[in-house]
Description:
The protein has 122 residues and is of the alpha+beta class. The protein is 47% helix and 15% strand. The protein has five helices and three strands, in the order αβαββααα. The chain has helices at residues 2-18, 34-45, 73-82, 94-98, 109-121, and strands at residues 23-28, 50-55, 61-66. Strands 1-3-2 form a three-stranded antiparallel beta sheet, covered by helices on one side. Helix 2 packs across helix 3 (73-82). The protein starts with a helix and ends with a helix.
Amino acid sequence: MKQIIIVALMLISTVTFAQNKNARASLEVDGVCMMCKQRIEKASLKTKGVKSAVWNVKTHELKLIFDERKTDLETIQKKIASVGHDTKTLKATDEAYATVHPCCKYRDEEVIDNHKEEKAED
């Protein structure tokens, strides 16, 4: 009986320590401009446990630092989708996408082309 209790305690402590409070991950998130960047980062940071969120406009890569004891990538992606941005594995609803600013309509080829032209002028 004592052995079972000891093994159970060892397993519980292993699971507790297996979660990282400074986990790092990156996600691909669709967007086209600095307003998208602000919206994506803000949604990520509003997710409990996210400590850092930096989205790159050119590469569409969102770099995260988060506490695995409080959140996970799926939860973060849901929060991003709720403000209208798609990730590789989760697409924003049409209602959420409709709330983004007209210049941020990353699913529209014309908007994408306009942003490419702006970048070429820089």
